[in-house]
């Protein structure tokens, strides 16, 4: 699958490799997939993603796709969203799912952890105001449950409410009755998922993937 | 060893006086009774004896020799076997009890070590008394009675997620690692036996095959020993599942190797074809075991679908089907352990959705109790068997075995990790490797397998047994005792004690879908992709067949939420009703803190809090109380076969109700105090609304029931507020906002969500008469709810599906 040709590959690979930490080989694989998805065009648009057959089953499909067009997930982060993405953006977003390496200092591990959680946070925080409000959280839960038809909306709402209550309980401790919890800030998000070993979980194997697999 | 024994002995005996007495009694009886081998449970003997007695009686009748009727007679033989079994169990339990009474001791020495010492002591005492030591660790007893509960416990409560995520690594260690260990130990042992030129002993006569057989027996990591030690060191989930999973899955390898070598050691040679057959046999044994287990697991799940009317025997199905799976697998010489594991793991999610909460608790406690007693007995018996056995001590053999075991384990783990790490996303660090290697404890399974060897084919069986015992003792004592300080010293990550929160559950699910999505975008059919496919298949077909009613359609997140709610309710019950409300509810943060404030309709500042005179209040309360008692009396009907007939038997429904009321009340009070307008979001989930409704219905539509719950509550405010608010028809509160929280009646809520708002609109618009007069009517409506609701209700009361509480509730049972 073009391992050798990608080693000596186009100069843009080198730049990407420096930016994302992927090997040339991995970038080559992703590039092939990119070309496959975009039908050999230079850019990917949302409809290309919506055309992926397997993704159709995913309850959070819209959010996943949106994450690819979100400028906040780029390196360095920017504001706003894109209409179409090039290979660079595609690979950069994918790099959030890179497994951590074995020889990592604690600080590095911590930064990987922050970066992965930031990605998740951005997926929840749809209006980019730095907090996940109750409405946004409810939306997340609704999406998660959206594949099971007969679940009433109230159920999702009450789950989100309970979750939010828990967040407020964990992060704020005591609150006066007239105080108002605005929403989950990123700091609170870190605290909330403290025991959640995200760096060990949010990973996809990139090396042994087969880009020629037809997903239509 | 002897100083420790001396230390422990007085310690445990001196801990308390009654205990000392009991222990002495146990020991005395054990010594005095002419000990019959209770392992070879001699029921024919008993029958025979009975027959003899009958004959004697018949003869007496024939002879017409009339004796005075014996007022008191003594016949120990009659009850000997069951009595001695009970004594052993009692001894084991008391020992377990005793260890935990001694301060500091459990922290230093693992329980398994102490139990072996007790076994040695008891065995020694029996021997001193000149009695024949019963062959306690008889293989039949071990494999048919003692082992299955432990394995079923492990399988039923197997943490599926980490297990499946690390299945590759576990299989690698279990299969390749065990094979490597067996051949390395067996081969080198043979070599050592051969090269000793001036060895006078009979080691020279040892052939290669018995050596390999010995190697395969001694190389398998033992689940019982691993469980006993690892549960005490609270190591992180990954390492625990790696070592424990290995100990479970290596059974297939051990079974095949054992049978293979045992078969051919008589013949003396193994051809290539035999080797190939052995490999095939391995797959048959392993996969066949899993298949048998899965079949029985599905049968059990299917059966549990229909048990809703006979809740009492629900737990029995779980046990019996599992045991049948084990026996069926053993019948074909398949791996019984793998069958049990598969059976437990397959049936659990479905059975848990079907059975009641009480049945689940019963299953959990029974499994924990059985496995704990079995484990204790196994270690004690190991000690007794050591004293009893005819030992053939051979320094060379024993030393070489112990050293080889350690070396093989270390090389195996390091070598395999090197390979595995190439494929793992989360690599195993050096510390991890060390713990995995060091945690490779050997145990009673090896001993029992050694015990099974035929003396005719293996003249050196006793030497084998001695070596096995030494290896077991070495691993359990030296490694088991040092592993805890080593874990601390190396700062290996410990188990997270945190409870699983709803947020984590949401994010686990979110992450699952996210990763599946990313894999799909990458076009990579990986782990997540297949897991997702399997989940969908499970949801679509399997659950429908195996789970009764509504629950089959419940997504995982909602199931989790129900469990969490139920857990909160239970915590509340345990903390003594509503007394410590603030601690039972996550924090002092209340719902209104997170509700977005919508621009509220102008709220009249001069809202009058309704007041009641004290005497009026008292009167109301009296009426309520008498009503309540009447209904409760009616409800108290006892039925032996229907545990769930009335939820008041265990006060659970009551407490659930109380909690709800307390929460609602809490909220109301706060709302009123702060003059805050909270939009009428559902104060709590449909589940609990249903639960409340259910309890409401149990009281024969007695409208006063709910108020009663409030007045019972310890919150002093309940007395002044509640009756005033809800039960007095004459007071009309003028509310500007029709959605003021004061008007949020839970039943209304329920109806609002279940039926459309037709009836309730009228009430709301009409500015809120207080509810009492209309209640009975509403209740009736609610009572007429269709059967579907009823089903939900009863489930709600009976079934939380206890997954969530496992982690934290496990603690009390385990040593």
Automatic annotation (TrEMBL), chain A:
Transmembrane segments annotated in the record for this chain: none
Q: Could you confirm whether the keyword Metal-binding appears in this record? A: yes
List residues of the EF-hand domain: 112-147
Superkingdom of source: Eukaryota
Q: Which GO terms describe its biological process?
A: cell differentiation
Q: Which GO terms describe its cellular component?
A: cytoplasm; lamellipodium; nucleus; ruffle membrane
Q: What is this protein called?
A: Calcineurin B homologous protein 3
Task: Please provide an example of a Pfam family that matches this protein in its UniProt record.
Answer: EF-hand_6
What SUPFAM superfamilies does this protein map onto? EF-hand
User: Which PANTHER family does the record associate with it?
Assistant: CALCINEURIN B HOMOLOGOUS PROTEIN 3
The GO molecular function terms of this record are: calcium ion binding; protein kinase inhibitor activity
Q: Which family does it belong to?
A: Belongs to the calcineurin regulatory subunit family. CHP subfamily.
Alphabetical keyword list: Calcium, Cell membrane, Cell projection, Cytoplasm, Differentiation, Lipoprotein, Membrane, Metal-binding, Myristate, Nucleus, Protein kinase inhibitor
Q: Does the keyword Calcium apply?
A: yes
Q: How does it sit in the membrane?
A: Lipid-anchor
Task: Tell me the InterPro entries matching this sequence.
Answer: CHP3 (IPR052490), EF-hand-dom_pair (IPR011992), EF_Hand_1_Ca_BS (IPR018247), EF_hand_dom (IPR002048)
**What compartments host this protein?**
Cell projection, Lamellipodium; Cell projection, Ruffle membrane; Cytoplasm; Membrane
TrEMBL record, chain B:
Report biased composition (Basic and acidic residues) as residue ranges. 775-794
Primary subcellular site in the record, as a coarse category: membrane
Catalytic activity, per the record? Li(+)(out) + H(+)(in) = Li(+)(in) + H(+)(out); Na(+)(in) + H(+)(out) = Na(+)(out) + H(+)(in); Li(+)(in) + Na(+)(out) = Li(+)(out) + Na(+)(in)
Pfam families in the record, alphabetically? Na_H_Exchanger, NEXCaM_BD
Q: How does it sit in the membrane?
A: Multi-pass membrane protein
Q: Name one GO cellular component term.
A: basolateral plasma membrane
The coiled-coil segments of this chain are none
Alphabetized UniProt keyword annotations: Antiport, Calmodulin-binding, Cell membrane, Glycoprotein, Ion transport, Lipoprotein, Membrane, Palmitate, Phosphoprotein, Sodium, Sodium transport, Transmembrane, Transmembrane helix, Transport, Ubl conjugation
Question: What InterPro entries has UniProt attached to this entry?
Answer: Cation/H_exchanger_CPA1, Cation/H_exchanger_TM, NaH_exchanger, NHE-1-like, NHE_CaM-bd
Where is the protein situated, by its record's location annotation? Basolateral cell membrane
Q: Which GO terms describe its biological process?
A: regulation of intracellular pH; sodium ion import across plasma membrane
The annotated region (Disordered) lies at: 696-718, 754-815
Q: Where are the transmembrane segments?
A: 21-40, 109-129, 141-158, 170-192, 276-300, 365-385, 397-421, 464-487
Biased composition (Acidic residues) is annotated at 805-815
The entry sums up its family as follows: Belongs to the monovalent cation:proton antiporter 1 (CPA1) transporter (TC 2.A.36) family.
By its UniProt entry, which NCBIfam families does this protein fall under? b_cpa1 (TIGR00840)
Q: What is this protein called?
A: Sodium/hydrogen exchanger
The organism encoding this protein is: Hippocampus comes
Question: What is the taxonomic lineage of the source species?
Answer: Eukaryota, Metazoa, Chordata, Craniata, Vertebrata
